[in-house]
Amino acid sequence: MAFGGVWLIIRGYKMNLAGKNIWVIGASMGIGHALVKELDSYTTNLVISSRKEDLLKKLATEINLPEENVIPFDITHHDEAKEAVHKVLQLMGNIDCIIFTAGVSQRSLITDTQFFVYDKLMNLNFLSIVNIALTALPSMIEKKSGHFVVLSSVAGKFGTPNRSGYAASKSALHGFFESLRAEHTKDNINVTLVCPGFINTDITMRSLTGNGEPYQHIDSELEHGISVDLCARKIVKAIIREKREIYPGGNREIIGVYLNRFFPRLLQYIVALKYK
Question: Where are the transmembrane segments (predicted)?
Fold first, then answer.
């Protein structure tokens, strides 16, 4: 039995997603949208949320999701977000898994970035997510089960130029949810941190510049990144196996993560050289 338990830890437990109550926040586009499509094939009980009610309703129609399972709200309005948690709990009875995909990136140097932009990045990418996690956590503790899936970034593992506030907000997610995992392993609450590299989405179109305006360009690296559908499949596989952390993306980003772990000075040199 002891060896079997250790082997399960090493290999990873496989969760059966069928019938699980899963709430996807940030479901109207990008990775969140692709995740909803992927999860629907597992016959899960889905609730989908974002600010964009029209896009949510369109997605719900595509997957035959009941109208009451569409709960639009603005994640940065903290009281509204708390109310959304209570609506989901009232609708589903309990939440087996919350997937956070909402967020915004950044494209500006530190010296060009106004303070309010950092405030906005931290609020949307970190504090708003913490607010929902804190509101949902008591119900998970009560039923001794739950899973938070958090869309971070390789930028949460190491900072690069033009992304200082974005990297800070994603690093903060790691600190918070790693602490939550440690405190609530006893309650059978799991955390999966997803650290994508370059994914072929339009996230940089909405990235914040130094004055808070949208960047309105798509980075060439993203155009050559992996598809959102492949990224979604990797995330769902990680949920099933209750992985602690994954890095969907290309080899270059994964190499960067390991260079940062074992040869941080070398990575710093490579990154600085690229941005000279």
Answer: none
